[in-house]
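Long-time lurker, first post. I've been practising inverse folding by hand and with some scripts of my own, and I keep getting stuck on stretches where the structure tokens seem ambiguous. Below is the full token string for one chain I'm working on. Before anyone asks, I'm not after the true native sequence, just a reasonable design that respects the backbone. If someone could post their per-position residues I'd love to compare against what I wrote down in my notebook.
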């Protein structure tokens, strides 16, 4: 099935095909984002540097502002980004620990 833009969809099969395609793209983008977490875990000299609350707040605020500029609900996007950042921190901690253990 050809994926149509949302505004062009006329039935639920088209909507679902579009959502499924976007979900695959989002997962690919998340893979790229987590590649940066791997790099951060490799670059940061100490485990305590992994969690940076100031940076976390900045990332969430940036996502919220971008969402609102795009006409999306800022609070909901901020909540999603909070979970994304926490998952990223957990992933980075795991990668950091694996690097240290392997050394």
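-- Answer (accepted) --
I ran through it position by position. Result:
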């Amino acid at each position: 099935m050809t994926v149509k833009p949302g505004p062009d969809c006329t039935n639920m099969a088209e909507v679902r095909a579009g959502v499924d395609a976007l979900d695959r793209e989002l997962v690919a983008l998340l893979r790229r984002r987590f590649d940066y977490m791997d790099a951060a875990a490799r670059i940061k000299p100490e485990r305590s540097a992994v969690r940076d609350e100031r940076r976390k707040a900045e990332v969430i605020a940036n996502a919220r502002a971008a969402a609102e500029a795009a006409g999306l609900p800022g609070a909901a996007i901020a909540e999603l980004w909070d979970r994304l950042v926490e998952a990223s921190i957990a992933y980075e901690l795991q990668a950091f620990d694996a690097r240290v253990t392997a050394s």
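A couple of notes from the structure itself: The mean pLDDT is 96. The first helix runs from residue 12 to 43. Happy to go over any region you disagree with.
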